[in-house]
Specification:
- It is a single chain.
- This protein has 19 helices and six strands.
- The longest helix is centred in the N-terminal third of the chain and has 26 residues, at 96-121.
- The two termini are 26 Å apart.
- It has helices at residues 30-36, 39-45, 51-64, 75-87, 96-121, 128-151, 160-168, 176-182, 208-227, 234-245, 247-252, 256-276, 279-298, 301-310, 313-327, 355-363, 365-381, 388-403, 413-426; strands at residues 2-5, 68-71, 156-158, 183-185, 187-188, 200-201.
- 45% of the residues are buried.
- It has 457 residues and is mainly α.
Length: 457
């Protein structure tokens, strides 16, 4: 296996008598589809937080069997990030809980690295319609979980994995991270809290902020997938109806960061469409905005937002951000390995409340810069994409970078981000010396049948 950088003019192998198969022709699509499409099953089984790591194993095996594996331009930034994540292990106090937390987060980073390289190379099996359909199925699960929280705010699911762990010994279940993985709450809600805050949907994820992150990152892709469909079958109509219906749980999450992300995506796409003179697409965005405003006014969103603001969550976040910055000089290069426990046991750890702060405190300044610059690079080099899917993924990169300031993306959002980056970085519009893309950039298996989100040709 040869690891090379995908630059214009790179040539496949030296054997000219028998041309090698196209890049990634032997990389099947099923591992990627299995990550996102059957996500309700992984949630029910208690594997929703582990599926990325589990399915990265066959991806790595398939990549290992390739004669040649390419990496995108800019991949060096990602490797720098991984290097400092590994170096930060030297600062982790070797307790059971710390090792579980550090090991889990690092394994997700490594799994997402495999996903990034796999999707980048599997362009002949994993086309853009397949990616759009798979992420749309993931988004639909997000919406369904949101309604589960709306209808059953105090519900929880003790997964089969919970019962397995309870039989082999309760040591792991006493760890907060593991316990939350296998006992799935439908909302982020504390009925005994003196703060009168209404339940906020979080299923199928651990926290409401996870819900808002995935929803805002993937919604533009769902819209692009709908717009790019050639046939309007049952799957198309289910998605189309779910877009306005999803506004109910979305607003009831009271996710201010999600509102910012969606507003930014809409404004950015509107600007790009206006510059292209695409009036019909602008009208579609306007209709979506009107519907969203109507749902906002019909639900008690403003009242609940006011109550939440009175709970002083914003000042707590600001205090954590300040203390995160104060902690950096103590270990600026490799961080502390993990967030720093707060002196107040009722407050979150220092270095949480956003992936930016997580990496800054846990892994240091260089790791933080490399992580952000990688996704900024994917955004900048794909700005020439003018087709619906390309524009939506380009907007996703922009929104993801902004939301890093207040949302954690491990483990649910980061797989979405690396898949989007891989698709953008492999398109001709992202390569140096190529012109703008006038229409959809497709692989030989695009478009896949619209009625089957996980189908390939």
């Amino acid at each position: 296996m040869t690891l090379t950088t995908d630059l214009p003019g790179s040539r496949p192998g030296d054997d000219r008598s028998t041309p090698p198969p196209p890049l990634g022709a032997r990389l099947p699509a099923w591992p990627l589809v299995a990550m996102f499409v059957p996500f309700p099953l992984w949630w029910f089984l208690g594997l929703a937080d582990l599926v990325w790591v589990v399915l990265a194993v066959p991806m790595a095996a398939y990549l290992g069997a390739q004669r040649r594996v390419l990496v995108p331009v800019g991949f060096g930034l990602w490797l720098v990030f991984l290097l400092f994540v590994a170096a930060s292990a030297t600062r982790v106090e070797p307790t059971f809980g710390n090792l579980v937390e550090y090991g889990y987060r690092s394994s997700v980073y490594l799994a997402c690295t495999v996903v990034l390289v796999y999707v980048f190379n599997a362009r002949h099996r994993i086309g853009e319609r397949l990616v759009g359909g798979s992420l749309s199925a993931y988004w639909l699960t997000t919406v369904a979980g949101g309604y589960l929280g709306v209808l059953h705010p105090e519900g929880e699911l003790r997964t089969p994995l919970y019962h397995v762990l309870s039989q082999v010994g309760g040591g792991l279940l006493s760890n907060d991270l593991v316990n939350h993985m296998v006992v799935r709450r439908f909302t982020q809600y504390s009925p005994t809290s003196f703060l009168d805050i209404a339940p906020r949907p979080s299923a199928p994820f651990l926290f409401t902020n996870n819900w808002g992150s995935v929803y805002s990152l993937v919604l533009p892709v769902v819209v692009a997938y709908l717009l790019g469909a050639r046939h309007r079958g049952p799957w198309w109509w289910l998605l189309a109806v779910s877009v306005p219906a999803s506004l109910v749980p979305a607003f009831l999450t009271l996710n201010r960061g999600m509102f910012i992300g969606l507003g930014l995506a809409m404004a950015y796409c509107a600007l790009r469409l206006a510059l292209q003179g695409r009036v019909r697409a602008l009208l579609a965005l306007f209709v979506i905005g009107v519907v969203a405003a109507g749902v906002f006014l019909a639900l008690p969103v403003q009242e609940r937002l006011d109550t939440r603001l009175q709970a002083d969550g914003t000042s707590t976040r600001a205090s954590l951000y300040d203390r995160s910055l104060e902690a950096v000089p103590g270990s600026p290069w490799v961080g502390y390995g993990l967030p720093i426990p707060s002196e107040n046991p009722n407050e979150p750890a220092i270095g949480t409340q956003g992936q930016f702060w997580m990496i800054l405190v846990s892994n240091g300044v260089i790791a933080t810069a490399a992580f952000i610059l990688f996704f900024l690079w994917a955004f900048v080099v794909s700005m020439r994409r003018t087709d619906a899917m390309g524009l939506s993924l380009n907007a996703m990169m922009l929104v993801s970078v902004v939301e890093l300031a207040y949302y954690g993306v491990v483990p649910y959002g980061l797989p979405v981000m690396v898949v989007g980056a891989a698709v953008l970085l492999r398109s001709p519009a992202a390569l140096p010396g190529t012109g703008p893309t006038p229409g959809p950039v497709t692989g030989p298996d695009d478009p896949v049948p619209d009625g089957v989100p996980g189908a390939t040709r």
